[in-house]
Specification:
single chain, 71 residues, mainly beta, two-stranded parallel sheet
C-alpha cells in the first residue's frame, strides 16, 4: 500500500485494522509527527514499512507491538 507524498499529518487509530494480510506499507514523504500505539495494530504480516521524510517527534511505546515480521 503506497500512501507516500500525500501530506498526511495524522492517521486515525487502527486505520489499517482490516488489512490483516498487508505486507508492504509506504508512508514516506508525509507530515506525520506522532506514531500512535494503534496505527499498526494487528498488522502481523507487515514485513516492510517506509516512514522516511516525515516529521516524526514521538513514537509511542507499543507502536510496533504487533509487527513481529518487520525487518
Amino acid at each position: 500500500l503506497d500512501l507516500s507524498k500525500n501530506s498526511i499529518s495524522f492517521l486515525e487509530n487502527e486505520i489499517f485494522q482490516n488489512l490483516l494480510n498487508l505486507e508492504y506499507l509506504n508512508i514516506h514523504g508525509n507530515k506525520l509527527k506522532i506514531l500512535n500505539d494503534d496505527y499498526f495494530k494487528q498488522l502481523m504480516n507487515l514485513i516492510y514499512l517506509e516512514l522516511s521524510d516525515n516529521l516524526i517527534e514521538k513514537i509511542e511505546l507499543k507502536t510496533f507491538k504487533d509487527t513481529k515480521r518487520l525487518t
